[in-house]
Amino acid sequence: MVTGRRCFAGELDLASLTRLRDSLGSTEGVVTCEIEFDTDEFDQAYVEVRAQSELPLVCQRTLEVYRQPVSIGLRLGLMRREDEEAALPPGYEPLLVPADGMVALADLIEDELILALPLVPARPDSALVGQEESAAEEAQEDAKPNPFAVLKSLRLQ
């Protein structure tokens, strides 16, 4: 793939990504991806991965499914041995290639999507649990007369 400078582009169904599936609110949707194999000016073999999707996640604030946009763009330096990692140029992430030289592209995309998941999925426009009640309580407290208001008027005189 590297010597042939192969490029692949396509879509993967979210339902086909078995390890990612358990973290999703539903399996409806696709991942649009591009993968490019090449070597750089230092003769370092790499694979460039670009992927975009809107992952259906369960908001931990509202427990409703929402779409989390995810965009991945990274360059993975291909290595045969772990000790080659130190020689990777800056900006490269290491990818240890198995002895047979085969890289499962769908697994590679799935790994990166799993890493891109938020620790605690939360829809950006959702309120924190209890936030609505605390705002209402503050409004009620502000409406009550302050028993120390009389002291303020005495101090000013």
TrEMBL record:
The keyword Hydrolase does not apply. Belongs to the DUF177 domain family. It comes from Pseudofulvimonas gallinarii. InterPro entries: YceD, YceD_bac. Keywords: Ribosome biogenesis. GO terms for cellular component: cytosol. Pfam families: YceD. This is Large ribosomal RNA subunit accumulation protein YceD. Plays a role in synthesis, processing and/or stability of 23S rRNA. GO terms for biological process: ribosome biogenesis.
